[in-house]
Amino acid sequence: MSGRAVFTWAEGASAARRAWRDLAAHWRRPLAPAAPLWPLWIALAVLTASVLIPIGLALDEKTARAALRLDPDFIHVFGAISQIGKSHWLFALSLLAVAVGLFRREIVLGPRRRAAWGLVASRGLYFFAVMAFSGIAAQVVKHVVGRARPYLIDLDGPFHFDFFSLKAVEASFPSGHTTTVFAALAALTLLWPRLGPAFLIVALPVAASRIVLGAHYVSDVAGGACLGLASALAVARIFARRRIAFTLAPGAIVPRPRSLKSIGKSQNLTDRR
């Protein structure tokens, strides 16, 4: 038997408290040195704007009007694909990973197996944080920009903006589904770089579905993709500087996912101290 069969509510509460103390200890530790990102963020913001504006001018109106003429059966297929971009099931999976990781860490025997399940929990926590950060960021930008949806194109045109609007019909930029799916793509690729192409194969049809369904313009989708990618990287760096799920080499921009080997080394150094 690798562990006990019975795990009471009291033990569960105790495990949750220990997990919270572990996380708090990571969060309070001195930050690892890292290259400043603000010059990169400014450069990327300028580059993104310089790309999105020509895309919008060249493609937004054409694709929006073309989407209105698509076959209903074709639209129905992409309606199903679009559901992948909803965040609720991704939140559920990340919380499940955290819960299972913490539970298994408490009942298994041996420091290596405990570390392995702790790593599962920390990665689930990272994914949850990316989903939350990207979702909040997308909602803030949506309502600050206040861009009218494509189905209002005949009424308002493709470039109608009502800044600081709370109306859903004026929340086109950026695409929330695309932000979510590209944030998930980037987060999973940072954790498992070799699987990046496979994750991209899933993300691209979801992004395309938002145009096919007439919910967003091409530039909305491109903006959502950029926001999702940036969100995953920003949260990864925040976690890496506290050695949660990632590590960050001095002067590096992109963090590396933590492994059992790196966790074992850090534990050995702690024990020696």
Topology:
Layout: H1 9-28, H2 38-67, H3 72-82, H4 88-107, H5 111-145, H6 153-156, H7 176-191, H8 196-212, H9 218-240, E1 246-247, E2 256-257, H10 260-272
Antiparallel strand pairs: 1-2
Helix pairs in contact: 2-9, 3-8, 4-5, 5-7, 5-9, 7-8, 7-9, 8-9
Structure description:
This protein is mostly helical and 273 residues long. It contains 10 helices and 2 strands, in the order H-H-H-H-H-H-H-H-H-E-E-H. It is elongated. A two-stranded antiparallel ribbon has the order 1-2. Helix 5 packs antiparallel against helix 7 and helix 7 packs parallel to helix 9. Strand 1 (246-247) and strand 2 (256-257) form a beta hairpin.
N→C terminal distance = 33 Å
Q: Give the class from helix and strand content and strand pairing.
A: mainly alpha
- Total helices: the number is 10
- Measured as a percent range, the helix fraction is 55-70%
Major sheet size, sense and barrel closure: 2 strands, antiparallel
* Binned strand content: under 5%
Identify the notable features of this structure and list them briefly.
single chain, 273 residues, mainly alpha, two-stranded antiparallel ribbon, 2 strands
